[in-house]
Structures are given as C-alpha cells and as structure tokens.
Write a structure and sequence with these properties.
Blueprint lengths: L2 E5 L4 H12 L4 E5 L2 H8 L5 E5 L5 H8 L2 E6 L10 H15 L4 E6 L23 H18 L4 E6 L2 E3 L9 H9 L3 E4 L8 E3 L3 H9 L8 E3 L8 H11 L6 E4 L1 H7 L4 H6 L4 H4 L7 H7 L7 H16 L1
Parallel strand pairs: 1-2, 1-4, 2-3, 4-5, 5-6, 6-10, 7-9, 8-11
C-alpha cells in the first residue's frame, strides 16, 4: 500500500499530522536528515516508517519518496539561509516526480503576502513580499505551482499564521509559557499590544489530511487562520494568571532586536520580519471552510491552558 510521507517530520506540525494518522491507524513515513530526532518523535510508533535522506543526493530523495502517494512538505532551512527554500523544493519535487508521487501539500507561511493591504487577508491578496525571506518563500511556492501547472504532480499550499502548543519551542510564546510554568521573566518581541493571531498546533493535523484528500484543493493556496485576533499581552496575562503568577515581561522592539542581533545571529534575522509585529497579517479562511466544512479551532482559553499544563508537567 502506498503511503503518506511527512518530509521534515521532526517538528511540531509533523507531530500533529502523525497524531491524526496514528489515531486512524494509518501507516505513514517520516523523513528527515537526523535519525536520532526522528526516533525521538516517532520511534515508539509501530505505524511510522523512519527514513533518513540527503536532499542534495538525488538517489537519496528518490528512495525517501519511493512508494509514496501523498507527500506533506514540512522541510525547514536555517533562518539565515532562506535561499535554500526553492532549491530544496525543486530537488524534492524532482525525486518525487521520478518516483510517481501524485500529490504534494506544502505547509506554508504568511511571508509571501508581504505587507497586508487589507484588515484581513484572503487568498486573493497580492503576493508582494518586500523581504528576502518572503521572496524565497514565494519562489518555493512557484516551484510547486509550476510543476502542478505542467501536469507533473498535483500541488497545494496551506498557509498558517504563528503557532503555539504543548512542547512547541519554536514559537513567539514559548518563553511566556516557560516563565509562567517555572517562574522568571518572559522575553517577548514587541510591540505586544497589536492584534495578532496564533494557531494551536494540534488543530493543524486534521486540516492537513482533509485538504490532502480533496482533489479540488490542488493548484492553489489556502489560508488557515487562528482562533481570532488577540494581542500577545492578552495571552501573557492569561497564561500567568492560570499559573497563579504576576506577569513579568521583558519586551524587545526593533531597535533592541538590532542591538541584540550584533551578537545573536537568529535575533538579527528577526529584524527583517519585524513588520509582522507592527502590521500583522490576519488571515481570512472562509475559502478553506467552504471547501472542508467547519474546521476545529481550539479557543485561546483552552489552548493556553493545555499548553501551560504541558510546560508545568515537563518542569516537574
């Protein structure tokens, strides 16, 4: 039986998709560079087939894609090397097409939209990224959409906003949960009083699988919005209150990021994307809901509580 494969599986979204496949008792493949990481996330699941690969080796890509029907593309690159996004996508597609993979679902971001020109952003919003990272993400999408248009493979894109959830360390909210659970001060990227949206990671997996199964989903992109607009300050206030602590926040604005970036390469890379803090992209996902029907979105109060509980349990 041909499988679904999660390329770049060792992350929060990969785990969310795997949770749904496991619940449905569907066998799947997880693909990544680091076998130890894959074993950590999926080694205890008898339904998960673990495969390591090297995207720079065409034969390795083909082996990773062999026998696969649907490929979920979750591959990350270093934050300071976004020029790799379209290159790795092309290498992956070359191998997938050669092996007869039928469908690719790319888990995308809001970066290609650039500065929002409307209060909420539909799929019709222009893709005019003013940042290098946005341009590279757009170029990545174009590689997939071109292959689809040429009839080589079916491709679709699911756009996500920022996310959070149990054990999700690559989130703007990670240090809020950590400080609330363990004590101390939460470092945050400001301003923290502008409207924002976050998606609860466990909500993503079911939507990815529903989208992948819809023939009419392919050849375009779809927005999946969070549970509504909220500010980072509101989230921090709620999380600290749940923990029974007084909020202790330290907020870094753009100037501070530039200063910290002199010594911290990752923070330096955040400066380019700081516009998302001042003029955030708030997604409109009516099209996705029209395609799939109602999709579950965990309310912030519940998602924040579940996430805090996970941090508290991890802290002992």
């Amino acid at each position: 039986m041909r499988k679904m494969a999660l390329f770049g599986a060792a992350g929060a979204i990969g785990s969310s998709i795997a949770d749904v496949l496991r619940a449905k008792e569907i066998a799947y493949r997880v693909v990544g560079r680091n076998r130890d990481q894959l074993e950590k996330f999926f080694g205890s699941d008898p339904l998960a087939e673990i495969v390591t690969w090297n995207p720079d080796d065409p034969e390795s890509v083909r082996v990773a894609a062999r026998g696969v029907d649907t490929l979920i593309y979750l591959i990350g690159v270093p934050y300071n090397h976004f020029e790799l996004h379209p290159l790795v996508m092309q290498k992956t597609l070359d191998g997938a097409i050669a092996e007869g993979v039928k469908r690719v679902v790319l888990i995308g971001t809001v970066y290609p939209y650039g500065l929002p020109t409307t209060a909420t952003v539909t799929e019709e919003h222009p893709r005019k990224p003013q940042t290098f990272k946005g341009q590279m993400r757009k170029a990545q999408e174009e590689v997939l959409l071109k292959a689809h248009a040429e009839g080589k493979i079916q491709g679709t894109i699911l756009r996500l906003p920022d996310f959070y959830g149990p054990g999700v360390e690559k989130s703007f909210l990670h240090l809020v949960f950590k400080a609330a659970a363990q004590g101390g001060t939460a470092d945050m990227v400001g301003p923290i009083d502008t409207p924002h949206e976050f998606i609860f990671v466990p909500d993503v997996g079911p939507v990815v699988l529903q989208l992948a199964a819809k023939p009419e989903a392919y050849g375009r992109w779809w927005n999946f919005a969070g549970a509504g607009a909220i500010t980072q300050r509101e989230i921090a206030t709620q999380v600290f209150a749940m923990a029974g602590r007084k909020p202790k926040l330290r907020v870094a604005g753009k100037t501070m990021l530039q200063l910290i970036g002199l010594f911290n390469p990752f923070m330096r890379e955040l400066v380019e994307m700081h516009y998302l803090q001042t003029t955030p992209v708030l997604l409109d996902d009516h099209a996705l809901i029209g395609l799939l029907g109602q999709v579950h979105k965990t309310p912030y109060a519940e998602g924040l509580r579940l996430t805090l509980n996970a941090y508290q349990n991890a802290a002992g």
